[in-house]
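Repro:
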Amino acid sequence: MVTVEADAGSVEARLRAGWLACPGCAGVLTGWGWARGRSVRGVQRPVWIVPRRSRCSGCGVRHVLLPVLVLARRADVAAVIGAALAAKAETGVGFRRIAAGLGRPAETVRGWLRRFAGRVEAVRVVFTGWCRVLAPDPVLPRPAGSAWADAVAAVTAAAAAVPARFGVGEVAVWEVAVAVSAARLLAPGWPLERQPVGQHELPLPGS
């Protein structure tokens, strides 16, 4: 799986131009049909997503090109999940109150929070590393009062460093989180024990 920008037209243009690289061998990715479409719960309304499929012209491995709007195997857009994680960091309230505020099932939100809670230090380390990669003189986040808040602060700081690096406007914090984690922010096995930092492109507008 490879994360790409949300603009399908831009993804197609980059596929045709040979500008998308295989994460396994750095070979050129080419179009290979589409994955099955699915509806995910958006901030205000459902979002229909039909991910592009690709095939590496070098190693032959096929990859789904997943837009940075969503995390792997999640039924809600990343912005909603990120809002839940940020609410926990900012207020420390329980999952039921967060779920009520977002209009999501309590058990769903509880699952997000439990998964993130098990990797807050790893998230802080990975995204602090990206701050250093993205900015020549990075403004690293100060301690935010808890390990959870420190992790969210590192994600936010990495997103804040993106515009200057790529010459774009403000980017969505949780789309950066999707890009950095290759859509696996809440997936089992992420991050790797030795998570590579700065070795792949961030698929964001204008990058």
